[in-house]
Amino acid sequence: MGALVGKVALVTGASRGVGKGIALGLGEQGATVYVTGRTETGGATPTPLPGTVQETAAEVSALGGRGVAIGCDHRDDEQTRAAVRRVVEEAGRLDVLVNNVWGGYEYFWDGTPFWTEAGFWTQPIERWDSAFQAGVRAHYLTSVAAVPTMVSQGSGLIVTVSSEGAEKVDTGVAYGAAKAASDHMIACMANELRDHGVTAVSLYPGLVRTESVLRAAEYIDLTHSESPLFVGRAVAALAADPAVERHTGQVVRTSALAEEYGFTE
Question: Is residue 227 a contact partner of residue 211, using CB atoms and an 8 Å limit?
């Protein structure tokens, strides 16, 4: 029996990539996993990449969990609130929230030659707005909607997917600033949630073999890369740890968690 049977999780931005991998990692351990995303089967495709929330949910169920798809554009506050409300109304609880949805990557698929945005002054301001609205703001609002249920339970885990880009100066101004803001937001949340039994962490994956990364594989050294499922197993290990609160407010890395908990690809 999986370590997360009876637990309920919400993973945002899980049509593909890291979000999908996290949903599958939780599903492997028997969790009920609600997955959100803009790409729905039979609907409009916001990107040329494969994957839908329905497909992710089906794969979660195939692995032994229970996957539930929710079409949601997290740039829309009411859609975000409605998604969390649905989880709580249907499941009666919420044990794990994974803030994964993000913005600012549009140049990967909107036809913009990447070399034309080599400096922040060459980028449209929409890149900044997207990283903060579809990323930081969406993470904040989803947490605001989810936390009352966790506080009433006296338990819960919030994992916000971040990046070492928060600590570097060569990853782009909008991206680096947004990831740093996300990390500090989680640290502040953890401080306020500490007495309520709710843990909040920022998760740094390594280089992940997402669909968009694999499209550019000939230009990237993937020697030490991670699969999306490896990231999912990191989140599942945290969710199953009865002493996870020792990590609250911290940045945790998938590589270090693999050593601590013993999971592999």
Answer: no
User: Distance of alpha carbon 237 from its chain centroid, rounded?
Assistant: 15
- β-bridge pairing 8-11 and 96-99: parallel
The dotted CATH code for 8-261 is 3.40.50.720
Mean pLDDT in residue range 45-65: 91
If 0-12 CB within 10 Å is exposed, 13-18 middle and 19+ buried, where does residue 19 land?
buried
Q: How many residues does the chain have?
A: 265
At 109 the pLDDT is 52
Distance separating alpha carbons of residues 209 and 93, to the nearest angstrom: 32
Instruction: Supply 95's token pair.
Output: 């044990």
Residue 7 CA to residue 25 CA, distance in Å, equals: 13
DSSP 131-150: IIIIIIIHHHHHHHHHHHHH
Catalytic residue numbers read 175
User: For residue 208, what is the DSSP state?
Assistant: B
